[in-house]
Amino acid sequence: MHIILLSGGSGKRLWPLSNDIRSKQFIKIFRTKDGGYESMVQRMYHQIREVDEGATVTIATSKTQASSIHNQLGDEVLVCVEPCRRDTFPAIVLATAYLHDVCGISQEEPVIVCPVDPYVEIDYFEALKKLAALAGEGAASLVLMGMEPTYPSEKYGYILPTDKKTVSGVKTFREKPDAETAKEYIDQGALWNGGVFAYRMKYVLEKAKQIIGYADYETLFDRYDSLDKISFDYAVVEKETDICVMRFQGQWKDLGTWNTLSEAMEEPCVGEAILNETCENVHVLNELDVPVLCMGLKNMVVSASPEGILVSDKEQSSYIKPFVDKIDQQVMFAEKSWGDFLVLDVTRESRTSKVTLKPGHSMNYHSHLRRDEIWNIISGKGRCVIDGVSRRVEAGDVLEMKAGSRHTIMADTELKIIEIQLGREISVHDKQKFELEIDGVGDKADS
Amino acid sequence: MHIILLSGGSGKRLWPLSNDIRSKQFIKIFRTKDGGYESMVQRMYHQIREVDEGATVTIATSKTQASSIHNQLGDEVLVCVEPCRRDTFPAIVLATAYLHDVCGISQEEPVIVCPVDPYVEIDYFEALKKLAALAGEGAASLVLMGMEPTYPSEKYGYILPTDKKTVSGVKTFREKPDAETAKEYIDQGALWNGGVFAYRMKYVLEKAKQIIGYADYETLFDRYDSLDKISFDYAVVEKETDICVMRFQGQWKDLGTWNTLSEAMEEPCVGEAILNETCENVHVLNELDVPVLCMGLKNMVVSASPEGILVSDKEQSSYIKPFVDKIDQQVMFAEKSWGDFLVLDVTRESRTSKVTLKPGHSMNYHSHLRRDEIWNIISGKGRCVIDGVSRRVEAGDVLEMKAGSRHTIMADTELKIIEIQLGREISVHDKQKFELEIDGVGDKADS
């Protein structure tokens, strides 16, 4: 099967583990069989592989997430990077065009689209297979999945089917209602709209021609920022008459708040934490190297990361967003394609970070106008180039780069560096990139 | 007046702000008039100065606290350092001998002894003056202060006075009782024994001659570790018949737990913290540079420091000690006579710290057998000596010291250094100190 996973934007509602550049789908909190932890996106990817080893998995996402996706899923997964965010209709068209125009998959093939972040079990993917089969057989131009509601939620749109069969026609759609209206919908047999659907590729490509003048993937990519923001539901689903819905009764949870996320945790603590015997229904996620001690807590979540500390009643945690919006905290930790960085200390005139480079990876060759930098290599081996001069480096070496100096470093083994930036105007925007050029012949020996 | 403040040992019950080397009396949580914060010991010192500007204040404490005391109170305060901990009788004798033999104060003079950590107001110090006057007049050999009990506490010993006058004789003493017995004592008119007493110095020096063969301060200091651990109450107070007690009715609180400490805070938060509108009776003490966000908390204390994070119900916080005893966390932050250090990052083969040196101060001249060190100067100016060679240093300089290399650094202005230690056996015990010797003439210019 071909599956497109929509990997959404930054999720401040799981602060301090999610922020502007770190999304909730990458937080590692689910226990794996080998005793480690995996993230939402890893869990879903492994579940898909379990149901269909040969599935084509394409993740439609923004540039900021591409590194994290490859770090967590490897290079085999397809990543369709949106040049900018334009809601789900352009994103789904781009990913479909990517599969057809770039990957060469026939436009007769069915594709499934679903969000990357619901918490589901294997039966969900078995149902997705059936959904694809229905689309492939031409049961309708568009085949939706409707979730059997478990309570009158105000968070979802509703689908009213024409009858109670497993697969039925669609009478109408309803936007997110209030709880009372939701109850009425459910009494009428409505299902939650979980944003899951299947179609043959040519269906969406044809719609794209009509609505946004789609010609091919590259042209679409180049003019992506000129497209209007519009959802797939609004642009396509709600206007389609040749449509059917398949019911799904299995587990399907949105883990968008600390309350729901902690419910899915198999153990109370991830990271270093101590709960005394009077704690009840407490979950701790601690990414720091120091312990969290909890005493006498009831129905609470505690989360600590380099960005900050959250201590919240579980119910209250769903109201977090406006408070996090007000926090003006620079990003302290980030995963990059080449490794990661963690800010250790900030003063008025300096910033100290720990930078980890993965074996075989390197930074861009770059310089800064308004800061000097010092690299203290604390472990590993590699090679640096400073102003065109290459040299081998290893633990114990110190490299000094004055403002304007061009520099890069490549890791042979995993390299850990304490980077010290010095200057009064330290900014991520002060960075000029260059093509790498190496002077002379051979390497200077380590001094 | 002459006052001896007993500054007790490490207080794990206020973890993570107190630990093996940081005591609760140095935590800055009380608002000052100029909008800053002061610690218990600073608050008490300023209160004493307010009541008696010329008071002689001597702090009897351990070596580990001497730096913090001078950092917080300046150099004017007298510090009587105990070579090792031997309970209150030896400590009081040593401090009394220090006042008499070292400071030359007449042994006819009265002295007041009291613990450094109760939370009190100015009336307490007015009462101490009266206590000293009573001792000076010879009202009794030993004059105690008895606190009017406000509840049947199990935490204090009790003093039974002979009558209800402000100053009365003492019928008997009672050890810490259970709550029911405490209630009986209170019904009988008993007072809390707060460890506050006054005497003429010759009284204690005479007792010291009889009990431990006291001769003079220096001899006592030298053989201090051979003395038995014994409390002043047990060795002297409970055996004395020429004794009286003065009632005190003002505020006198022990801030030994997070519960009691937070009650004394004038505002809910010290440090970066956000409480949402559903929080009730919540106190936050955050020493980190990242925010703490609290939502829906009731009757709780949250405290974060480089050592760890505590989230506790206020009642439960008094049971913290056994949990903290189990935490095997290296010291991450410490104040020293020359400044302070903060551990930023620890790996298997490295430790990165921020070291701050106060102007005019320097480290010992020292070397390490099993680690290399790199100093990255991030701000300030000073002078370093490495293997006998002196050079000026300033922000941006990098100094590399291989294992075995002798090194020190002196601050002209406040110096901030990112220190990187490299080796597989990094330990505070791997340090050899040397007399400072500088080779050659003049200084090497900065390279």
Write the layout of secondary structure elements.
The structure is a homodimer of 447-residue chains.
Chain A: E1 2-6, E2 30-31, E3 37-38, H1 40-51, E4 56-62, H2 63-73, E5 78-82, H3 88-102, E6 110-115, E7 118-120, H4 122-137, E8 142-147, E9 157-161, E10 167-174, H5 179-187, E11 191-200, H6 201-212, H7 217-222, H8 232-235, E12 243-248, E13 252-254, H9 258-263, E14 269-270, E15 273-275, E16 280-286, E17 292-295, E18 298-305, E19 308-313, H10 321-326, E20 333-336, E21 339-347, E22 350-357, E23 365-367, E24 372-379, E25 381-386, E26 389-394, E27 398-401, E28 407-411, E29 415-422, E30 432-434
Parallel strand pairs in A: 1-4, 1-6, 4-5, 8-12, 14-16, 15-17, 16-18
Antiparallel strand pairs in A: 2-3, 6-11, 7-13, 8-11, 9-10, 9-11, 10-12, 18-19, 20-21, 21-22, 22-29, 23-30, 24-27, 24-29, 25-26, 25-28
Helix pairs in contact in A: 3-6
Structural write-up:
The structure is a homodimer of 447-residue chains. Chain A is α+β, with helices and mostly antiparallel strands and 447 residues long. Chain A is built from 10 helices and 30 strands. Chain A has helices at 40-51, 63-73, 88-102, 122-137, 179-187, 201-212, 217-222, 232-235, 258-263, 321-326, and strands spanning 2-6, 30-31, 37-38, 56-62, 78-82, 110-115, 118-120, 142-147, 157-161, 167-174, 191-200, 243-248, 252-254, 269-270, 273-275, 280-286, 292-295, 298-305, 308-313, 333-336, 339-347, 350-357, 365-367, 372-379, 381-386, 389-394, 398-401, 407-411, 415-422, 432-434. In chain A, strands 20-21-22-29-24-27 form a 6-stranded antiparallel beta sheet. In chain A, strands 8-11-9-10-12 form a 5-stranded mixed barrel. In chain A, strands 14-16-18-19 form a 4-stranded mixed beta sheet. In chain A, a hairpin with a 2-residue loop joins β18 (298-305) and β19. In chain A, α3 packs across α6 (201-212). The longest helix of chain A is centred in the first third of the chain and has 16 residues, at 122-137. Residues 440-447 of chain A have low confidence and may be disordered. At the A-B interface, β17, β18, β19, α10 and β21 of A face β17, β18, β19, α10 and β21 of B.
